[in-house]
Amino acid sequence: MSVNPNRIMLIALCIGSLFIAMPFCGATAPGLQTQQAPSANRRIGAVKEITASTITLTPDSGSDVAVTIQPTTRIVRITPGEKDLKNAAPVQLQDIQIGDRILVGGKVSDDNQSFAASSIVVMKRSDLDARHVQDLQDWQKRGVDGLAKAVDVAGGTITIAVRGKDVVIHTSSQTVIRRYAPDSVKFDDAKSSTLQEIHSGDQVRARGDRSVEGSELAAAEIVSGTFPLFAGTVNSTDASSSTLSVHDLSSKKTVLVKVTQDSQLRHLPLEVAQTIAVRLKGMAGGASATATSEAASNSGSEKGQTKRAQAADPNSAAVESGMAPGRNARGGRAGGSPDLQQLLSHAPRIALADLHKGDAVVILSTEGQAGSGTAITLFSGVAPILQAAPNAAQAMMLAPWNLSAPAGDLGGP
After folding, report:
1. Could you tell me the pLDDT band of residue 151, with boundaries at 50, 70 and 90?
2. Over the stretch 72-111, which tens digit does the pLDDT of each residue have?
3. CA distance 398 to 404
4. How close are the terminal C-alpha atoms of the chain, in Å?
5. Closest CA to 33 of 139, 121, 129
6. Which of 71, 91, 139, 343 is the most exposed place for a label (fewest CB within 10 A)?
7. CATH of 42-123, one of 2.40.50.140, 2.170.130.10, 2.60.40.10, 3.40.1160.10
């Protein structure tokens, strides 16, 4: 496939708009989170099982541990965000439930398999769920997200592009800054970071108080990460290792992409891909154009992929026509223009086995190591989009991010 490199980011940034697991997707509990390495006399994690006077704890790192409750064990409960145990309330063992987060103090056995608890600090799962909802709403209300354009370490600011407009994020000594790990999109794996680690092109999300005109934000919290977006063609797939080899159309290099149970693999039916291509041409200000001969030659393959996608997802008929509740045939609001994020997010899911040599794909992945990464989202059936107008990439920069998270996650801001 011959594709102008300037067009490659066209759908790639749209995939970025469906993005990844955002802050608070996991079970990390505010107030029970620590930046220090676990000490020999402390364990923190989630309650897996409770039998008699023993709690099976799944720690944040390491294997499960049997926590033995002593008659003298002190058990208290705190609310998410609370950091002073003076405000903790005494509770009993029977008040602890599976899924609760606990911080256990005591003495570990010689074989490191059991733990005699002298104290347990409990954070209820129900409290965490409620806090998660509150945080999500706050991120949606006071958050901004976009691609970093400039970082001024001395001035303590980050300029990001948000729907075609610049927003300057101001930091202070109180701003919490985190960065996603190179091989993960889970906020639980994000590490404490600094402004120096944020670079132009990084995806940045911040929440705080915005100025009246919305062009500035005083950040209370920032999370950033590098998530490569690229278009290519499939060289091969390997079911045994759950990987696929992709020829990157921009770098002309081969990239090895790992597929996990959290990876979202979707196929754009031909009609939907053509709708998006037309929409993006309009966004780029391009004139109407007829389909290229290459797009036409790919149509047979695309239709074959559509049939495979329909087999994988019986509900894809509405997707193929671009229809969704309350939307027109192009995926937009009734009487409105196509909603690109809706068209993408409703595309039917596929499996690694549905991908074949020569298929055009666009992938959002983790940073990983050189020449490799883990797929966050992959779209096949994108040939018509990669044939879009030369200026379509610039138009795609204006598309808003979708705040939803991948399947299997609780969601996030």
Report:
1. very high
2. 999 999 988 777 788 899 999 999 999 999 999 998 887 7
3. 18
4. 37
5. 121
6. 71
7. 2.40.50.140
